[in-house]
Design a protein that fits this description.
This protein is an alpha+beta fold. Helices cover about 20% and strands about 30% of the residues. Helix 4 runs parallel beside helix 5. It starts with a helix and ends in an 11-residue tail after the last strand.
C-alpha cells in the first residue's frame, strides 16, 4: 500500500508556486577601470580605487537583488568588480561610450538577450539594454534605460533647450517599445535613470502611459539618498507585471558614509529596489534579502 501511495504522489503534477523577485536600479556614476587622465573621461572624473570598488561590491552584496539595471558603467570589466562572476551574470549594451547601460542577473535565473534599443542612443546618448527573463511559467521582458540629463521638470511640450529636445526625441522610442509589449500581452518592466522627476503632472510619464497602463514604484515618494532628493531613478511595470509589483516594498539603500566627498568614490545615486511576486513560477531559483 505504501508503494502505491508513493507512486500516486509521483504522478501528481508539480504545483507551480509564486516566486518573489527583488528588482533594482543603480546608476554607478562613471564607473570605469580606465586610468586618470584617459582621453575618454571628463577632466573632473576620478577613477575609483580598489578600496572604492570593494565598498561598492559590499553595497551590492547588501542590496542582494535578483536583477539590477545599471547605468554609467564602462563595460563588463568595471561591472564585474562590483557584481562578482560567481553570483551574477552581466549583460551590457554594445554602445561605444563610457557611460553604458546594463542588466545584472543573479545566477540561477535564465534569460535571453534582445537587441539593444538603439533609438534611445541617438545624439551619442545611451541605448537601452533589453532582455527576456524566464521565470518558469512566465517570461518577463526587462528594459534598462538611461535617458538624457538636464531636463528634469520642464513640460516637454514647452521644451526649447537642446537637452530637453533630445529627451523629447527619446520618448517616442520608449513609447513604441512599451506599445509593442502591450500588443504582445507580456509582463514588462522599464527601469533605470530617467533623469526626470515624473510627478503626477509629468508630460513624459503621461506619454508613456498612453502607450500602456504603467505602475510606477516611486509614485508619491522622495528619495533619502544623500540627505534627500526627488527620484529620477524609477521602476515602471506594465502588462501583468503591474499586478506583480508591490510598490509598498520600495526601498532605497543609502550609504553609511555621510561625507559628501564620498559621492565621487561611491555614487551620486543610491540603489532603488522593489519586489515582485511572480505567479506560477515553478523552477525559479531566486533570492534577495
Amino acid at each position: 500500500m505504501k508503494s502505491v501511495l508513493m507512486l500516486f504522489a509521483l504522478l501528481l503534477p508539480l504545483r507551480a508556486v509564486a516566486a518573489e523577485l527583488k528588482i533594482a536600479t543603480w546608476n554607478l556614476d562613471w564607473l570605469t577601470t580606465r586610468a586618470a587622465g584617459d582621453h575618454e573621461l571628463p577632466s573632473d572624473v576620478t577613477p575609483r580605487s580598489d578600496e572604492d570598488f570593494n565598498r561598492l561590491a559590499q553595497y551590492a552584496q547588501e542590496l542582494d537583488a535578483d536583477l539590477i539595471a545599471i547605468q554609467e558603467v564602462d563595460g563588463f570589466r568595471a561591472a564585474s568588480k562590483v557584481f562578482p562572476h560567481d553570483r551574477y551574470s552581466i549583460h551590457m549594451t554594445h554602445d561605444h561610450v563610457v557611460q553604458r547601460v546594463g542588466i545584472v542577473v543573479r545566477r540561477g535565473l535564465k534569460y535571453d538577450i534582445n537587441p539593444d534599443v538603439t533609438g534611445l542612443g541617438e545624439h551619442h546618448l545611451r541605448s537601452g539594454a533589453d532582455i527576456t527573463l524566464h521565470l518558469g511559467g512566465s517570461d518577463l521582458r526587462v528594459l534598462a534605460v538611461h535617458l538624457k540629463k538636464g531636463c528634469r521638470e520642464v513640460p516637454l511640450t514647452k521644451a526649447t533647450t537642446h537637452v530637453c529636445e533630445e529627451l523629447r526625441d527619446q520618448v517616442p522610442v520608449l513609447a513604441d517599445w512599451i506599445t509593442a509589449r502591450r500588443q504582445d500581452g507580456v509582463p514588462f518592466l522599464v527601469l533605470g535613470d530617467f533623469n526626470r522627476w515624473m510627478d503626477s503632472r509629468d508630460t513624459l510619464l503621461a506619454d508613456l502611459r498612453q502607450a500602456a497602463p504603467l505602475v510606477r514604484a516611486t509614485e508619491g515618494h522622495s528619495s533619502p539618498c544623500w540627505g534627500g532628493e526627488n527620484f529620477i531613478d524609477h521602476i515602471l511595470a506594465g502588462g501583468p507585471a503591474a499586478g506583480w509589483m508591490h510598490p509598498d516594498t520600495l526601498r532605497v539603500l543609502t550609504y553609511s558614509e555621510t561625507d559628501r566627498a564620498m559621492k565621487d568614490r561611491l555614487s551620486d545615486h543610491c540603489p532603488v529596489s522593489v519586489r515582485l511576486t511572480v505567479p506560477e513560477a515553478s523552477g525559479v531559483s531566486a533570492g534577495g534579502g
